[in-house]
TrEMBL record, chain A:
Protein name as annotated: F-box domain-containing protein
Pfam families according to UniProt: F-box, FBD, LRR_At5g56370
Species name: Eleusine coracana subsp. coracana
F-box domain sequence ranges: 51-87
InterPro entries cross-referenced by the UniProt entry: F-box-like_dom_sf, F-box_AtFBL13-like, F-box_dom, F-box_dom-containing, FBD, LRR_FXL15/At3g58940/PEG3-like
CDD domains with a match to the protein in the record: F-box_AtFBL13-like
PROSITE patterns hit by this protein: FBOX
From TrEMBL, chain B:
Listed name of the protein: SKP1-like protein
Biological processes annotated in GO: jasmonic acid mediated signaling pathway; protein ubiquitination; ubiquitin-dependent protein catabolic process
InterPro entries documented for this protein: SKP1 (IPR016897), SKP1-like (IPR001232), SKP1-like_dim_sf (IPR036296), SKP1/BTB/POZ_sf (IPR011333), Skp1_comp_dimer (IPR016072), Skp1_comp_POZ (IPR016073)
Complex formation: Part of a SCF (SKP1-cullin-F-box) protein ligase complex.
UniProt entry tagged with the keyword Phosphoprotein: no
Domain SKP1 component dimerisation residues, every copy: 124-163
Organism this protein belongs to: Eleusine coracana subsp. coracana
Family membership noted in the UniProt record: Belongs to the SKP1 family.
Pfam families assigned: Skp1 (PF01466), Skp1_POZ (PF03931)
Its biological purpose: Involved in ubiquitination and subsequent proteasomal degradation of target proteins. Together with CUL1, RBX1 and a F-box protein, it forms a SCF E3 ubiquitin ligase complex. The functional specificity of this complex depends on the type of F-box protein. In the SCF complex, it serves as an adapter that links the F-box protein to CUL1.
Name of the gene this protein is made from: ga14711
Record pathway: Protein modification; protein ubiquitination
Domain SKP1 component POZ positions: 16-75
Keywords from the named record: Ubl conjugation pathway
Length: 514, 174
């Protein structure tokens, strides 16, 4: 298949980037301090009785109080008295840079004025310079960090020297360009236990000293980080304590050639897609290609108890890893549900919608090529205003996909089901033909499962046929609307269930056994 | 006393220990609850506090100790689960609700509590009280914080020093 190139203008690209940024921000854990005073919501009966008791506390306890404050409030305590003055600087620092914005809230803005970002950066510089450490938690997510690379280098130096333990470092490379590497200083942060990087070009690991390592790193997240498979090898090999590896999306650039010594990253970013079809997010290409090139297969036996791979089109490999290593915890967290799970590498991956003739044709083509013994199968309906044409039962019966469906499909999940005629025709065809089917999950689109009668209509399709004996049917409604995106990193990461299963446990379930 | 759910599997009834406050009041509690205190845990592991002996706590008065133990008893089951990764959302919400109400108390009690938690090395209780005090001063100006904490009004000299210092940390007031 010839590579497909998608071109975007600046405005479209910025929209995509901000959307992607919001996914990255969602993946970050809650910081240990909040600007919101949860406990102070209650009455303070004796808040002003005029007796200074707090000064009797030892410095260690004053430090604990200060560590529980957002950074601005914490720094203000230096004004209180001579006793308090030196404490903040030597108290473990919790620095969340969005707390430094004028609004100072826990919310991380997707869109940020450059002036605000610059003011935040100036404050960050002062804090990192004046504070003595240690830095148990630092989150820097408000910076257009490419604007001042020397400032970034200084920050990382401070963080490394003063022992940062948890670090979120998310860049805003707008207008979009990622031609410079993140400084390799991160490899000198020996105390790191958790590291999340977002929107960076990873340091070139080839040129790193041999001793570079993350000896204490337990959790690592790459969110839209541009890196090579060998960089992943390098990091994983040098993180002996790693428990959780989160990989979300990936920035993909056309392969560089002798004619293009610089990665061709421009405002009108060119996205080449060999594996993916139009209509998907642009961020997952390289991860997909790493996956499909089987580079990641070697990690199947890697003893990491949790690994989540988001925004990676679920190819057969992905699914196979997810299934075979369920107990070791390869959880594939799903951005959306992709249609193909065929292990034949020539097959493309995408979302199949039985309402579209074009999709249906491709689907049947794909199914007719399936050669493996058993497949799970995902279908997702799209909202449509188009006429569904003549995708009736007859269409499917004549489509040639019957062989695969009869003898190979064992699990089917139908997402965003709306009960339309073409959807029902497809289901009927499936129910009649699929002899291997062991499990069917029909996930109604949010708001579309109005009554038990809707569920019964589906159940009736399956209950009629001998072909589906011994098959479980679950009918439920999705908690999220199609536009929300049904994937959730935290749910995926901490789930100990089959990725399919959360539909059953977290939605209003109407389980119906056939 | 009901049989312990977790415990160390040592036959049946929960092991009890006696703690004696500075004003000579005796408190009998399950060893698992008292062991939330790192200091007491060592003594208890050595076999102390059982029988009629009791562990004297000369720095903690009875009013404070009863409050400390209330916290320990509530948090002991979760602590036994090792930070309770398996705890249900309901359990966690219940603990949170308890904590919220637990620190809704006079400042005088608050500070004796954090001192006791400090002496007894009860990490969770120290953090909880520290958070409460932090919440009392969040979002306030230095003068408001001083008033909240009961500091006397600053002398003109102190005021000048404060003003100069505020300039130095200008970013914290923007």
């Amino acid at each position: 298949m010839p590579p497909r190139t998608v071109s975007m203008n600046t405005q479209e690209l910025n929209g995509v980037m901000e959307q992607t940024l919001s996914y990255i921000l969602q993946a970050l854990p809650n910081p240990p301090v909040s600007t919101h005073g949860r406990l102070s919501a209650l009455a303070d009966p004796s808040c002003c009785d005029g007796v200074d008791r707090v000064s009797d506390l030892p410095d260690a306890l004053l430090g604990k109080i200060i560590s529980s404050l957002p950074v601005k409030d914490a720094a203000r305590t230096t004004v209180l008295s001579r006793r308090w003055r030196p404490i903040w600087r030597s108290t473990p620092l919790v620095l969340v840079d969005n707390h430094l914005l004028p609004a100072g809230s826990d919310e991380i803005p997707r869109h940020l004025e450059r002036a605000d970002s610059t003011a935040v950066a100036a404050a960050v510089s002062r804090i990192l310079a004046v504070h003595l450490g240690p830095f148990p938690f630092v989150r820097l997510v408000c910076g257009y960090m490419d604007d001042d690379r020397s400032q970034l280098a200084r920050w990382l130096q401070h963080l490394a020297v003063k022992g940062v333990q948890e670090l979120d470092l998310v860049n805003r490379p707008w207008p979009f360009r990622l031609d410079e590497h993140l400084p390799a200083t991160i490899f000198s942060m020996a105390a790191l236990t958790r590291l999340y990087l977002g929107f960076w070009r990873f340091p070139d690991t080839v040129s790193l000293p041999r001793g570079a390592a993350f000896p204490c790193l337990r959790e690592l997240g790459f969110c839209n980080v541009s890196l090579e498979p060998r960089d992943i090898d390098f990091v994983l090999a040098r993180s002996p304590a790693l428990e959780t590896f989160h990989m979300q999306g990936h920035l993909f650039f056309p392969a560089t050639s002798a004619h293009q010594p610089q990665p061709p990253v421009r405002e009108d970013l060119q996205l080449r897609s060999e594996e993916c079809r139009l209509g998907e997010g642009p961020m997952s290409r390289a991860a997909c290609s790493i996956w499909q090139n089987k580079q990641l297969q070697q990690y199947r036996d890697w003893p990491c108890p949790r690994a989540t791979l988001d925004w990676i089109p679920r190819t057969g490999e992905g699914r196979a890893a997810g299934r075979q290593h369920h107990h070791q915890g390869w959880y594939i967290c799903e951005p959306k549900c992709h249609g193909s799970d065929c292990q034949d590498p020539c097959l493309t991956d995408g979302t199949w919608s039985p309402q579209y003739r074009q999709d249906a044709d491709q689907l049947t083509q794909m199914l007719s090529k399936c050669r493996e013994a058993a497949y799970p199968f995902d279908v997702q309906s799209k909202k449509t205003t188009e006429s569904s044409g003549r995708l009736n039962l007859k269409f499917w019966q004549e489509s040639g996909a019957i062989e695969c469906i009869q003898s190979r499909i064992n699990v089917m999940v139908f997402h965003e089901f709306r009960g339309g005629r073409s959807e029902l025709a497809f289901l009927k065809f499936f129910a009649e033909g699929a002899r291997m089917l062991k499990r069917v999950v029909i996930v109604f689109a949010k708001g579309c499962l109005r009554s038990i009668a809707d569920a019964d209509k589906v159940r009736a399709l399956f209950s009629a046929k001998e072909a589906t004996e011994g098959c479980t049917l679950v009918v439920c409604e999705s908690v999220a609307s199609e536009d929300d995106g049904i994937w959730d990193y935290h749910r995926g990461c901490h789930s100990c269930y089959d990725p399919f299963a959360f539909f059953c446990s977290s939605t209003g379930v109407i389980p119906c056994s056939v | 006393m009901a049989a312990p759910e977790s415990g160390d599997g040592n036959n049946g009834a929960a092991r009890m220990v006696t703690l004696i406050s500075s004003d000579n009041t005796r408190f009998e509690v399950e060893a698992a609850a008292a062991s939330l205190s790192q200091t007491l845990q060592l003594t208890i592991l050595d076999g102390g506090g059982g029988g009629g002996d009791g562990i004297p706590l000369p720095n903690v008065d009875s009013a404070t100790l009863s409050k400390v133990l209330e916290y320990c008893i509530k948090h002991a089951p979760a602590a036994a689960n090792g930070g309770a990764p398996n705890a249900t959302a309901v359990d966690r919400a219940e603990l949170e609700r308890f904590d919220n109400e637990f620190v809704n108390i006079d400042q005088s009690v608050l500070y004796s509590l954090i001192m006791a938690a400090h002496n007894l090395e009860i990490e969770g209780l120290q953090s909880l009280v520290a958070k409460k005090v932090a919440d009392m001063i969040k979002g306030k100006s230095p003068m408001e914080i001083r008033r909240t904490l009961g500091f006397p009004d600053p002398t003109p000299e102190e005021q000048a020093e404060m003003n100069a210092h505020m300039l130095e940390y200008g970013w914290a007031y923007e």
